Structure formats: structure tokens, C-alpha cells
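Provenance

Sequences were taken from public entries as deposited. Structures were produced by running a predictor on each sequence independently, with no templates supplied. The record for Putative phosphomannomutase from Microbacterium foliorum is shown for reference.
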Amino acid sequence: MSEARLAQARAWMRQDPDAETRDELAAVITRAAGGEETAVADLEDRFGTRLAFGTAGLRGALGAGSNRMNRVLVAQAAAGFAAFLRERAGARTPTVVVGYDGRRNSRVFATDSAELFAGAGLRAILLPRLLPTPVLAFAVRHLGADAGVMVTASHNPPNDNGYKVYLGGADQGSQIVAPADSEIAAHIQRIADDGDISTLPRSRAYETAGEDVVEAYIAATAAVSPAPAGSSDLRWVYTALHGVGWETLSKIVAAAGYPQPMVVGEQLKPDATFRTVSFPNPEEPGAMDLAFARARRVQADFILANDPDADRLAVAIPDASSDSGWRRLTGNEVGLLLGARAARAAAGTPGASLACSLVSSPGLGAVAAHHGLDFHETLTGFKWISRAPGIAFGFEEALGYLVNPETVRDKDGISAAVAILGLAAEAHARGGSLAELLTELGDTYGHYASGQVSVRVEDLSIIGDVMLSLRTLPPTRFGHLAVAEAQDLLHAPQGQPSGDVLRYRLDDGSRIIVRPSGTEPKLKVYIDAKADSATGAAETVRGLEAAVRTLLEERS
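Predicted structure for Putative phosphomannomutase:
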């Protein structure tokens, strides 16, 4: 065992204010010092690197060490971010708002941050209780703050947590992008290099926001789509997936005039263990099974589900061909429904635009063109989508939707839920359903279908190896379809989205995109097709999914 590594771990332990992670680390150090191989490897994993601060902030597993989420790392991040904000503000006192969700240690990390921000001379405002991420994003703009921090790991596994950063002012409450990320990271590293976090100034002179902030979010979100006449007999089911969405959503539903849903009681209240799901993401198989069962019992018209911090929305509709009797709509299907809604409202507005990530359905471009709106394709992430010029609506296929850009410049699963309620109510009033709206969508803008192949890995080097293989020996066909054009977005033209992304356009007009996930240990492949009918498009996607799996097996 390296004496330097042991010394580093002991120095970390001495400054750790958390008894649980101190004890955890002490046990590992003792075993590693005694030569136990698993403990030596564990210590190397914990301290061989540190969680990198980037445009997604920080996110990782809870535990002791620089490569884990814990109070030492969060203190370094808060002090570094405070230094960045003071440097940016000059002589002015910057304001920062802090929010937190229901995950393990979220409140502790948020309170530590507020104390450190106040100790650094900032005006720090802590939200009154655990709340959805969109409330924090709203509060940054509503309060005219310079920045916001949300302690959340969104839909990550139960033992993860994270630190999500927003900037106000000219950034309008959007998530950070370069170069702010590297500037903040440099400040954080300086704090870490200086040593002991116990010497950082702290103050309890931070403010706690009043309920008026939450009430303002409720009013603004209810106004997204007030209930039309005849909405009172809508039958719908809601699940919060053990997250923080329900309390806020239920108040907004009442304020907007919709009937309250029938709920999945086992998943309604915040629960950091996420005891009924193996992975708290509505995209994952099995995550919505309890909602499907509830909907079958009550014969619901549709299901809405938020992820644990309520920045994403899932929608499901009855489907007799499914074993469960229900089908979760893809993020692209919901995005096109909401995009068409926004396009109809924005038509004729000079400069108004629709935006989506480059891996989301190209159908949004067709919607924008149909209504004479601008269209912007961005890199993945709402930090980019929210910055699209003239944005009236934005989405990404991973169940993220920005429907209320004047108040929230981030994905918001609650305002999206209200918009879907409005669409469902309008369809219901004329004897229709969300399924029929999807059919109308295809008839108007073209029939698009999408699919995704995801490969989760334990060893991140596998992803790099596969991407290198695809660049070195580019595929010439997927199944029976030839590749008409291959693009490596690492070398994208000036002004175009650039990143670690490979895009293939096939000779029938279909599209395949390969990229590493930005938040999970996954390689993701996105498939899009257009055909004369919904059935034809779906068949093309199924064939391409099989071809992609075959290719990945050969390359990994």
C-alpha cells in the first residue's frame, strides 16, 4: 500500500465532519494498511481521482473519498463556486439559491452549501423544504439570483447524489456551460489543494425562502394550460416514483382546475431507498409496473409519472397489444405532441423557435417548418437546449421537456404534465384520446418512429474502445440499409453541435447516432426513421435495433 495514498486518505478523514463517512474510511484505511488487497483497491478507487466538476456539476455514489459524493467534496465545491461568483460579481454581493430533493444527504449537502456561501459573504437563500428541481430553476429567475444549486442525482441509482449548478443574469437561469464549468472547477481545485475544509468560513446567516416562492411557481405553472370546460371526468393515474413531485404537482393540478389523479400510494412520498423499484427512472423496465397495475384497476385514460426530482415526465396510454395493457410513450412521441402544441401557439411570432437535442426526433424540425418557425438542433442537455435563440419549446428524448421558457429555463416534468393534461382534456372533450392525438400528429407532420439501444458497462474503457473501433473501421451498412453519410461530430463544422458523437444517415433517410452517456456508464445508440405509415416506421426501427445490437456485439 502506497504510504502517500494512506496519508491522503488520513488527511481526508481528519477534515470530514460526517461521522458515518469517517468511520467508513477508517475501516478501509486500517485494512489497506494491513495489506488487504480488496481494501487497497477500494482506497485507490476512492482517491485515485476525484469526481470531476463539469457542465452537469457533480454526480456520483455517496461515500468517503475524493471520488465520491460526501460533505468534504461538497464543501470544496461550495467554497469554489462561491469564489467563482465573487470574482464574477466584482464589488457587488452575489445571491445564490440552494434547493434539495429527498435523496440521502440532500438536505445536509444543501445546508452545508448555504452556510459556506453565507460564510464567503454571499447572500444565500435556502428553499424552505425538499422540492422539485424545476422549483429551484424557477427560483433563480424569480428572485433575480446570480446562481442556483440543486442537490439531486435526478433518476440515478439510490446511492447516488449530485450537485447541479445554474447561472442567472445573462444566462437566464440555465445550467452552466463552458467556460464557466472549467473556471468553477479551477476554483474548486484551489480549495481542495489548500487542504482542510474545517478552516473554511461558515455562517448561519443565510435566509430561508418563504412559501411565496413556491406559490409563485405553482401559479406560473398552472397558467401553462388551465383546464378547459369538460375536464372534470378525466381519469388519470400519477406516480412520483418515491420522489418529491407529488406535493407541488397536486397543488398545481388544483389551481389549474383539473381533477386530482388516482395515485400510486406506495410511490407517492419521498423515499431515499426507492424501495419498490430497482432503478428510479421511468424509462427503465419495471419502473412503472405499479402505475400500470393501478391504471388497470381504475380503468384510467392515461398515466403520468415524474422521476424522483420531477424534472422529467413519462406518459403512458392503454395498449391492448401489451402484456400489461399499457404502453409508455417514448420521449420523442411526447416531445412531438408538446412541440406541435407549442408551435400552434407560437405560429406567426417573429423569431420563435423549437429546439431539441441532436439525438431527439427529427420530426420536431418538420413541425417547426410546417408552422413557419425556426428550428435548432443542439448538443444533448438542457444547458444547450435552453439557450436556443427564440425558444418557445424544447425537448430531449430522455423524457425532458421545456414548455414554459419564460419562467423555467430547464426541463420541467411538472409544467410538462400540465401541458399534457391540457392536450388530454381537449381530446377528451371531442371524444378522443392521447393515442388519437398521436395518429393525428403523424397524419399532419409525417410518421416518425424512434428506438434506442443502451449498453451499460462496469468498465468505462469499453465505451472508449467501441467508439474508437467505430471511428477506425466505420460501418458501411446497418442490416440491409447502406450508410449514405457518416459524420464524426468531434470534427463538426464551425457553428454546428460538436462532441463525442457519431451520426450515420442511411440510404432510406433513417438516422443512427452513437454516443457515450453524459451521466451514466452507458453507450447509447439512437435510431430514427420516417415512413408513410406509423407501422412502416416502427418496422424499420425494429430492424435497425437488431442490426445495431449485432454491430455492438462485434465491436465490444
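The CA atoms of residues 316 and 329 lie 5 Å apart.
The mean pLDDT is 95.
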